[in-house]
Amino acid sequence: MNYNYLIIGVGLFGAVFAHEAHKRGKSVLVIDRRPYIAGNIYTEEIF
């Protein structure tokens, strides 16, 4: 498959960029070693 963008390491900027590109009809492949996006702003629990 072909993609318009390949994003490696989905921190905050990568996540926002992928979302905005997808909204504009672009295909995006996101790769990160973590099982979640947005890097260090990730939260497992909400108190």
**SSE order, as H and E?**
EHE
Q: Evaluate the radius of gyration.
A: 12 Å
Average pLDDT confidence is 86
How much helicity do the residues have? 25-40%
Strand order of the largest sheet: 1-2
User: What share of the residues does DSSP label as strand, in percent?
Assistant: 15-25%
* Strand-pairing-aware structural class: alpha+beta
Low-confidence stretches: none
Task: Please tally the helical runs, counting DSSP H or I stretches of 4 or more residues.
Answer: 1
Q: How would a textbook summarize the main sheet?
A: 2 strands, parallel
Termini separation comes to: 41 Å
Task: Give me the count of strands.
Answer: 2
Shape descriptor reads elongated
Pfam families: NAD_binding_8
Protein name: NAD(P)-binding protein
InterPro entries: FAD/NAD-bd_sf
Describe this entry's structure for a reader.
- With 47 residues, the protein is of the alpha+beta class.
- The chain is built from one helix and two strands.
- The chain has one helix at residues 12-23, and strands spanning 5-8, 28-31.
- The longest helix is centred in the middle third of the chain and has 12 residues, at 12-23.
- It is elongated.
- The model has no long low-confidence stretch (mean pLDDT 86).
- This is NAD(P)-binding protein.
- It holds the Pfam family NAD_binding_8.
